[in-house]
Amino acid sequence: MKREIRVNTFGFINVDKPSGITSSAIVNKIKWLAGVPCGHMGTLDPLASGVLPVGVGNATRLFDYFLQKQKTYIAEFTFGETSDTLDCTGEIVRGGHVPNESKILSVLPKFIGEIDQIPPKYSAKNVNGKRGYDLARAGIEFELPPKRIIVHGIEFLGRAEGKENAFNFKIDCSGGTYIRSLARDIATACGTQGLMSALRRTKSGIFTLENAIQIEELTEQNIQERVIPTDMVLPFPVLELTSLKRDKIFDGVAIPTDYQDGEYKFYRDGKFYGIAEVKNGKAKIKTKLC
Questions:
Q1: 114 φ, ψ to 5°?
Q2: Considering the entire predicted model, what is its pTM?
Q3: Is pLDDT larger for residue 95 or for residue 121?
Q4: Would the N or C end of the chain have less CB density within 10 A of its end CB?
């Protein structure tokens, strides 16, 4: 039976995902409560916790706008062991030493800035129409090409509490960065092995832990008030046109304008209509949301 639609304002719900549950499970719960299509804006592995923005309704059309948003993580890396998944959920293989603090600090600058990173084989990367994790689970050998990412900063936070072989790091990076791969590569630079043993995302674009909610707090009665309207999330200025030009732009016509090239929020009769793009002195609707 089709669920009753329980939201009349589309937008985003910022969830503090707990460890041990998939991002898809969070999306399915919100979809069931809202009664409309939903989708997450940047997945978190089951092991990871923290900020998971979920698009509600037509806000899911904005996925591409969030791919390159800056993310912040608190990660725990364990040295002297690795696994097939590059985290502690895989098959653990022990070997190698635990580097000291000075050695770790000496290699961190190599991983700041634009770098080429090889994704984990256990990932959603597409390989000839197959997901990397499906091929890896089937025991099929394959290679993934490196991907250019940006690491804005890595802060060494010291030894993990109660652990002799694990250290904590604060990492600011671009979307698409695999923290598991950073654990592997930093350990390699230290002459040993390493994996990611814990991860918490504290920021994803404008979404932070401070304005995130627990999934258990969401109910059919309160889900509407938890939706952040779509236009409040987008960091674009507003494009305003005369009534004549407005009518034409709704028909898909590129309208001459003095606005600078870029992306703009666009409204129709006081309601958020979508995203317009100005290019070479002409404005056109790029993404329609209503």
A1: -80, 120
A2: 0.90
A3: 95
A4: N
Statement to judge: residues 75 and 64 lie in one domain: no
Cα distance between residue 31 and residue 159, in whole Å = 40
- Distance between CA atoms of residues 175 and 11, nearest Å: 20
The angle formed by the CA atoms of residues 150, 203 and 101, to the nearest 5 degrees, is 65
What is the rounded radius of gyration, in angstroms, for the C-alpha atoms of the chain? 22
- Structure-block tokens of residue 199: 């991860």
Count: domains in the chain: 3
Distance CA 242, CA 281 (A): 16
Residue 176 lies in a domain: yes
pLDDT in tens, 20-47: 999 999 999 999 999 999 998 888 999 9
CA 21 to chain centre: 16
CATH number at residue 245: 2.30.130.10
170 and 88 share one domain: yes
Domain limits for position 39: 11-68+206-232
Residue 1 lies in a domain: no
DSSP conformational letter for 213: B
Are residues 119 and 48 both part of a single domain?
A: no
Catalytic option among 16, 45, 172, 185: 45
- CATH number (domain holding residue 173): 3.30.2350.10
**Cβ–Cβ < 8 Å for 84, 122:** yes
Q: Is residue 3 part of a domain?
A: no
Residue indicated by tokens 């653990």: 92
Please say if 116 is a catalytic residue.
Answer: no
Q: Quick one: 22 exposed, middle or buried, by C-beta within 10 A (0-12, 13-18, 19+)?
A: middle
Torsion of CA 239, 242, 248, 249, to 10 degrees: 0
What is the DSSP code (8-state) at residue 276?
E
With 0-12 CB in 10 A as exposed, 13-18 as middle and 19+ as buried, what is 194? buried
